[in-house]
Amino acid sequence: MFGGSLQLVIDRAITDAQLLADGGVDGVMVENYGDVPFHTDALPPYSISALTLAVHEVRRAVSLPVGVNALRNDAAAALSIAACTEADLIRVNVHTGAMMTDQGWITGKASETLRLRTALNAPVAIFADVLVKHAVPPAGLTIEDAARDTWDRGLADSLIVSGAATGSATDANDVARVKRVLPNAPVWIGSGVTETNVVELLHAADGVIVGSAFEEGSRAGGPVILDQVRRLVGTARKEHS
């Protein structure tokens, strides 16, 4: 979190990314997680500038795919940052439809995001959440319908299924429900992955996004601990080697 020195933020991002790379991950995601309370769908210019610098420096520090998530839901900023820094993907919390979140209603802007990607001629993949965490869907919306809309109509490149909140376990049955209706869609786990459950979740999904379990005390926002990364990645790779 910014405490008066942007350089400290950048240094922390670089250190965490290098530790993740040393621990054997396949890619890293840069996001403004400490920028709370989050703006709904339009980051202020200084936040976009700071996030751009962080992504640029992380890209220089590690030779891994890099993603961008502009919280809470600024897909245009994330995509623009990714295009300028040659990052590989963005994560969009609400790509299609609408969700009631702690920032109020957030509405997806898939049409704007896809057209911006075309205008920028940016080879950036869109990883889109389905019924994103820290949010409640409109009454009657099923995970199957939300996933189909995100994939078929929102044209996302990958789908993310999560638990209720940051660090909360993802229900493997939710992943199975999405895979059942969209067997060809890459589906990722977006929260609650641990050394204990990573094997089970990788049997259900195509990949996992890990945050809290890599950090000090297994709490989101802490510094990355190399041994925790190596143990979890080792467990996952041993099972799927």
Instruction: Round the Cα radius of gyration to an integer and report it.
Output: 17 Å
Spatial gap, N to C terminus? 37 Å
Low-confidence stretches: none
Averaging pLDDT over every residue, what do you get? 95
Count every helix, treating DSSP H or I runs of 4 or more residues as helices: 8
Beta strands, count:
10
Care to describe what's here?
This protein has about 240 residues and is an alpha/beta fold. Helices cover about 40% and strands about 15% of the residues. The chain contains eight helices and ten strands. Helix 1 packs parallel to helix 8, helix 2 (about 45-60) packs parallel to helix 3 and helix 5 (about 145-155) crosses helix 6 (about 170-180). The longest helix is centred in the first third of the chain and has 18 residues, at about 5-25. It is globular. The relative contact order is 0.12. The model has no long low-confidence stretch (mean pLDDT about 95).
